[in-house]
């Protein structure tokens, strides 16, 4: 069946007209499309050329944050005690690796110790922002650094560079007071967000470190500085091919912090403890500047900068002598007999005559017998401090009661924290009748008379820290002002408030003079601290007070804790100031579970630390030399020179402290 056309034209011109209309419509459509395309191209290339050029440039260049160098921390003499040092490190960029597992396998062949942290590394690399280099290992040796660079072509996404790492040149000497830096944790970010603040972008940089304890934590914002950035050119895969120096922004180093600490005194304070546990604080009694604040045993904060291995951390945390605890601020102990001057001052403030004598026959009776460890006969207050007579201070404690003692104790610095720029201070406990009402024993909130004798000799519920003891000693030595401690000298060159405008102590200076007389007698012939408190600096002498505090009730056992486990031995304390005729420095020493006496464990350590502080003081050293007395290191050098031996530069380090128990001494 043949097909026939559906449209019939009766005229040839009619067919031609239809064709021309179609041509016109198609041509017009093409013309309009061409015009639209030309217009759009004109808009893109002429009208919006600058905008799209900027977007193209942004796609070509990335701005990568650069952590700033952390601010230096220095001692009062300009010695850097927390600084930065060059460190070779190897980094991995997840987005530039073909296979992260394979890359870490290859890297593990070059750096075997990275295999131990493989799971942690994978977690950190996957959590990092895109194209952010994640440190895999820091402090590479030159051999390791060279090895990584040699195999760089075989390790896509791996790079080795040099950065600045936090460094603590004196290790454990400042571990507690300065603290350390560590990686930013989710908890740190959450804490900032909980305050309603937006965490800075630099916190998410894998190489950034944040202050974790001590001054590093409390002044973290000042020490942190301002992050910089590198404007780098990247290829289609995001890999860096060049840096735009003009578009980069240099990082600004954090503010320099100067502390009141003295590096020589601080280091000596840690040295004298040896293997013992405890704390030591040295203060200037005139302005409250802290020259040393040490907790022993300590730890090396450098271990924490790159992440301390879990085995090492566990060993530190589980050791019974608690190296991670700052015992100077966070460790509280019964002050023992070092507290007796407080009891005497409380009594004198309320009319007790310091010349009144109390007879000691070796025991005090109040419902039961309280031992004195000696028969001292008739003593006045000065003699009672010298002999550390329990009977004398139990007598006046029961006469004036716990509230009077507590009030004076707080006025002398106990039961409070101090604004020195550090957190973690434990205020301790200064008990009184109101405290007992709020803290009843088996439902009974009454203060019983039998509690008071122990309170009078620094035992019972009373506990204090080493900083409080140093403040208390400074106030006795100053004699007029309620000295408060200062640790931070300046931040970014701006001097911090100096402790010179102290409030007056609420005591007649003559009463404090009585306490000083007694403390000077302690370090004189017959005193409980005489044997180990002699400075050997001529007329420059030290006054002090010994103390021994029971860690538990021994019953009929040895008071010294001989033969007992370490944790059951007595605590040994000593407080002192020097020079006696013009007090300048105060020191407090606590030897935790030393098991000896305050005069045999605490006094020799306080002596060695005090000698360094005194010999570094130009005025006191000049006074010693004018009197024709040579400091120990000068005399040793002179003798060596006379023998024709080479003479080293003078050192302020005194001989090693001997703490072997001497023959029995008077009561502590």
From TrEMBL:
InterPro entries: Beta-lactam/transpept, Beta-lactam/transpept-like, PBP_dimer, PBP_dimer_sf, PCN-bd_Tpept, Penicillin-binding_protein_2. It comes from the Bacteria. It is a single-pass membrane protein. Its EC number is 3.4.16.4. Residues 626-668 are annotated as: Disordered. The keyword Aminoacyl-tRNA synthetase does not apply. Residues 278-611 form the Penicillin-binding protein transpeptidase domain. It is found in: Cell membrane; Membrane. Residues 635-646 have a biased composition (Basic and acidic residues). Pfam families: PBP_dimer, Transpeptidase. GO terms for molecular function: serine-type D-Ala-D-Ala carboxypeptidase activity. Its main location: membrane. Residues 66-243 form the Penicillin-binding protein dimerisation domain. Keywords: Carboxypeptidase, Cell inner membrane, Cell membrane, Cell shape, Cell wall biogenesis/degradation, Hydrolase, Membrane, Peptidoglycan synthesis, Protease, Transmembrane, Transmembrane helix. This is Penicillin-binding protein 2. It comes from Brevundimonas pondensis.
């Amino acid at each position: 069946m043949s097909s026939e056309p559906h449209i019939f034209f009766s005229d040839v011109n009619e067919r031609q007209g239809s064709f021309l209309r179609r041509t016109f419509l198609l041509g017009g459509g093409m013309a309009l499309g061409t015009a639209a395309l030309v217009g759009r191209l004109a808009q893109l290339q002429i009208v919006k050329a600058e905008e799209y050029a900027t977007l193209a440039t942004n796609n070509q260049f990335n701005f990568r944050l650069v952590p700033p160098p952390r601010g230096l921390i220095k001692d009062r003499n300009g010695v850097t005690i927390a600084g930065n040092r060059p460190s070779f490190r190897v980094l991995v960029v997840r987005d530039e690796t073909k296979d992260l597992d394979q890359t870490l396998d290859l890297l593990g062949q070059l750096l075997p110790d990275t295999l131990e942290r493989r799971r942690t590394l994978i977690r950190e690399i996957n959590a990092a922002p895109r194209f952010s280099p994640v440190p895999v290992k820091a402090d590479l040796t030159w051999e390791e650094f060279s090895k990584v660079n040699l195999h760089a072509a075989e390790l896509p996404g791996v790079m080795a560079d040099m950065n600045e790492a936090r460094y603590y040149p004196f290790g454990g000497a400042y571990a507690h007071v300065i603290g350390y830096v560590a990686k930013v944790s989710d908890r740190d970010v959450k804490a900032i967000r909980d305050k309603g603040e937006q965490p800075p972008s630099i916190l998410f940089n894998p190489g950034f470190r944040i202050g974790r304890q001590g001054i590093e934590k409390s002044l973290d914002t000042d020490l942190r500085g301002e992050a910089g950035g590198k404007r780098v050119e990247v290829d289609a895969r995001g890999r860096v091919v060049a840096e735009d120096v003009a578009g980069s922004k240099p990082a600004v180093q954090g503010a320099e912090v100067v502390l009141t600490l003295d590096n020589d005194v601080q280091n000596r304070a840690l040295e004298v403890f040896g293997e013992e546990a405890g704390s030591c604080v040295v203060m200037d009694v005139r302005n409250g500047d802290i020259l040393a604040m040490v907790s022993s045993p300590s730890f090396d904060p450098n271990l924490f900068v790159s992440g301390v291995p879990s085995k090492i951390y566990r060993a530190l945390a589980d050791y019974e002598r608690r190296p991670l605890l700052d015992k100077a601020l966070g460790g509280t102990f019964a002050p023992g007999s070092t507290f007796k001057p407080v009891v005497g001052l409380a009594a004198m403030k309320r009319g007790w005559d310091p010349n009144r004598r109390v007879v000691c026959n070796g025991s005090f009776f109040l419902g039961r017998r309280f031992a004195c460890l000696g028969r001292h006969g008739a003593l006045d207050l000065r003699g009672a401090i010298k002999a550390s007579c329990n009977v004398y201070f139990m007598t006046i404690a029961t006469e004036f009661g716990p509230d009077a003692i507590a009030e004076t104790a707080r006025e002398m610095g106990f039961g409070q924290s101090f604004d020195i720029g550090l957190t973690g201070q434990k205020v301790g406990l200064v008990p009184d009748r109101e405290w007992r009402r709020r803290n009843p024993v088996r439902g009974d909130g009454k203060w019983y008379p039998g509690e008071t004798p122990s309170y009078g000799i620094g035992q019972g519920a009373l506990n204090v820290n080493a900083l409080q003891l140093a403040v208390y000693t400074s106030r006795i030595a100053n004699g007029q002002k309620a000295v408060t401690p200062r640790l931070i000298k300046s931040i970014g060159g701006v001097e911090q408030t100096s402790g010179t405008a102290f409030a007056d102590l609420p005591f007649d200076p003559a009463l404090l003079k009585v306490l000083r007389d007694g403390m000077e007698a302690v370090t004189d012939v017959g005193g409980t601290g005489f044997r180990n408190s002699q400075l050997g600096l001529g007329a420059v002498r030290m006054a002090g007070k010994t103390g021994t505090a029971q860690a538990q009730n021994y019953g009929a056992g040895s008071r010294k804790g001989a033969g007992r486990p370490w944790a059951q031995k007595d605590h040994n304390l000593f407080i002192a100031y020097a020079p006696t005729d013009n007090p300048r420095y105060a020191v407090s020493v606590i030897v935790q579970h030393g098991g000896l006496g305050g005069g045999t464990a605490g006094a020799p350590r306080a002596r060695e630390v005090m000698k360094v502080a005194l010999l570094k003081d130009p005025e006191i050293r000049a006074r010693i030399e004018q009197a024709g007395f040579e400091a120990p290191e000068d005399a040793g050098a002179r003798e060596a020179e006379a023998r024709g031996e080479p003479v080293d530069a003078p050192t302020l380090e005194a001989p090693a402290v001997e703490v072997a128990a001497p023959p029995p001494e008077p009561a502590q």
